[in-house]
Design goal:
- The chain is an alpha/beta fold.
- Helix content is about 45%, strand content about 20%.
- The strands form 2 sheets. Strands 1, 2, 3, 4, 7, 8 and 9 form a 7-stranded mixed beta sheet that branches. It has a two-stranded parallel sheet with strand order 5-6.
- Helix 3 crosses helix 11, helix 3 packs across helix 12 and helix 11 packs antiparallel against helix 12.
- The termini are far apart.
- Its main location: membrane.
- Pfam families: OpuAC.
C-alpha cells in the first residue's frame, strides 16, 4: 500500500511540473531562445551583424532581435544586459574609452577582422597628402570636415586632430550614410571634400579615395574589430559565444556584403545571399570550439 501511495505522489508531482511548464508564459520561453544584437549605423557593422543574424537564425535555430542605437548607448545596453552582443568594437584606440568604462561588465571575443583603419579621407583628385596641408587649402574645403555621429571614436580622434594640428576647420556631425552621400555628391562635381573615414567601407570600392597622412599619429595604427558580449550570454548560450569567437570575415568578403546593401539590396537579403554562397566558411564558424584567452 505504501508503494502505491508513493507511486501516486510521484505521478502527482510530475503532473504539477508538466502543468507548470505548460502554463509558463510564452514570452519567457521565447526569451531563452532569443539572441539580442545591438549595432550602430556603420556600413561594416551593419553588414557583419546581419550576416551573424542569418547564421544564428538559419543555421543555429535562434530568434534574433536587432536593435540599432548610437555608439555610446550600445555600450550601456551591452553592460546592462539589454543586448547580448555588439560586433563593432574597434581596438586598441578607437573605442578604448568605452572599453575602459565598461570593461568590468562586458567580455571580448573575436576579432571579427584585423587591419581596420580610421583617419581623414579625401578623393584621389584632391591634391594634398597630409593633414598638415589642410589649412593651406581651407577655402577649397569650405573649412569643414564632414563627420558622422557624435561620440564615435573617429569623431573623438578628429577633435584631437583639429587641436594637435591647429586646424582652422569645423567638424560637422551627421551619420555614416549622410557622410557617404556628401562624399558622392562632391565627387560627382569634382569638389574638394575631406571626411572622417574608416576601412573597411564600401566607399573605397565605389570611389577613388585616399587616407591623408597623419604624421602625429593621432588616429593610431591599424586596429582589430571585436565582438563584446554580456557575461550572461555565456551562461545561457555558450555555443553562441563560441560562434562569435570563430566569426571572421576578410575586407573583401565584408565589402561584398556592404556593396550589395549600398546598391539597394535589403540588409537581410544581402546577408542571406552571402551566407548561401560561403557555406564552407560559415560551417567553420559554428563547429564547436574550446574558448581560451
Amino acid at each position: 500500500m505504501k508503494n502505491v501511495r508513493t507511486l501516486f505522489a510521484s505521478l502527482f508531482i510530475v503532473l504539477l511540473l508538466i502543468s507548470g511548464i505548460m502554463l509558463m508564459p510564452e514570452d519567457l520561453n521565447a526569451e531563452e531562445g532569443t539572441i539580442k544584437l545591438g549595432y550602430v549605423n556603420w556600413a561594416g557593422t551593419i553588414a557583419e551583424t546581419y550576416v551573424a543574424q542569418e547564421v544564428l537564425e538559419e543555421k543555429m535555430g535562434y530568434d534574433v532581435e536587432m536593435t540599432m542605437v548610437g555608439v555610446g548607448p550600445v555600450y550601456t545596453a551591452l553592460a546592462e544586459g539589454d543586448i547580448d552582443a555588439f560586433m563593432g568594437v574597434w581596438l586598441p584606440i578607437t573605442h578604448e574609452n568605452y572599453v575602459e568604462e565598461y570593461g568590468q561588465e562586458i567580455i571580448k571575443t573575436g576579432p571579427n577582422y584585423v587591419g581596420a583603419k580610421i583617419g581623414l579621407v579625401v578623393p584621389e583628385y584632391v591634391d594634398i597628402d597630409s593633414i598638415e596641408e589642410l589649412n593651406e587649402h581651407r577655402d577649397k574645403f569650405e573649412g569643414v570636415i564632414t563627420g558622422i555621429e557624435p561620440g564615435a571614436g573617429v569623431m573623438e580622434a578628429t577633435h584631437d586632430a583639429i587641436d594637435d594640428y591647429e586646424l582652422d576647420f569645423d567638424l560637422m556631425t551627421s551619420s555614416g550614410p549622410a557622410m557617404t552621400a556628401s562624399l558622392e555628391s562632391a565627387i560627382e562635381n569634382e569638389e574638394w571634400i575631406v571626411v572622417t573615414g574608416w576601412q573597411p567601407h564600401y566607399k573605397f570600392a565605389e570611389f577613388d579615395l585616399k587616407f591623408i597622412e597623419d604624421p602625429e599619429n593621432v588616429y593610431g595604427e591599424a586596429e582589430g574589430v571585436y565582438t563584446f558580449h554580456n557575461p550572461d550570454l555565456a551562461q545561457r548560450h555558450p555555443e553562441v559565444v563560441s560562434f562569435f569567437h570563430d566569426f571572421r570575415m576578410t575586407f573583401e568578403e565584408l565589402g561584398e556584403v556592404m556593396a550589395w546593401i549600398a546598391d539597394g539590396e535589403d540588409e537581410a537579403d544581402a546577408a542571406a545571399r552571402w551566407v548561401s554562397e560561403n557555406t564552407e566558411k560559415v560551417e567553420s564558424w559554428i563547429d564547436p570550439v574550446m574558448i581560451s584567452e
